[in-house]
Amino acid sequence: MPSEHETVGAYALGILDDAEATAFEAHLAGCEWCAQQLDELAGMEPMLAALADLPGSGSSPAIGDSLSAKPSPRLVEKLVDEVAEKRAQKRRRSFYMIAAAAALIIAGPLAAVAVNSGSGGGGQVTASAAQTTFESMPDRKSATDPASQTSATIAMQQKDWGTQAVLELKNAKGPLKCSLVLVAKNGQRVTMSSWSVPNWGYGIPDGKTPESRKPLYIGGAAAFKPNEIDHFEVVTFEGKKLVQVNA
């Protein structure tokens, strides 16, 4: 992390977050050097901001000579580099926050489709929110694949916006990464959800742990109404179909 002396340029441009600005102001109260640098930078915000956005900013020895204020060229180049880095950090923070918010919006209540509690091979197994939703849906279709022996039951409920579904998956041996794919009557394919199957698997009748014997319950949603759906597929990321459930 840079010291407080190295954040004077970013403070002058107002690109520090609240916590960083507060920390710098506390430092500034007792630092004559930073106060002097801040005075020299007064009125230079537009120039530094523009330079920070230029490709290769900080690389030209003539940058300092082009400014009306006259701090040393080395100081100006350092400040320009600092400003560019701070701006990049802010862009990265904004991107991560937007991505996280988008994920929550997309997942919505079905983010709780989560699996059974616990991440290891032991521990108490409790009913997930997805299992509770599954048990409340009377419209269910089931199938077992003769080759993989994987069993799946799809519970569905029509919504104004399409179909909410919850998958109950049994005899799925890991490790695998899988998706629940809806195939509409018009041929369109929609991935409703995806998940990982751990080494111990899900719904294994002779599993050695409570988690391995318990089925996986995971939810999904699609814009198609139930009468527009032909079937569902559980497929691996490599494209292998584990089981198909006709709607």
Automatic annotation (TrEMBL):
The chain crosses the membrane at residues 95-115. Residues 8-35 form the Putative zinc-finger domain. Keywords: Membrane, Transcription, Transcription regulation, Transmembrane, Transmembrane helix. Pfam families: zf-HC2 (PF13490). It comes from the Bacteria. InterPro entries: Anti_sigma_zinc_sf (IPR041916), Znf_put (IPR027383). Gene3D superfamilies: Anti-sigma factor, zinc-finger domain. This is RNA polymerase subunit sigma.
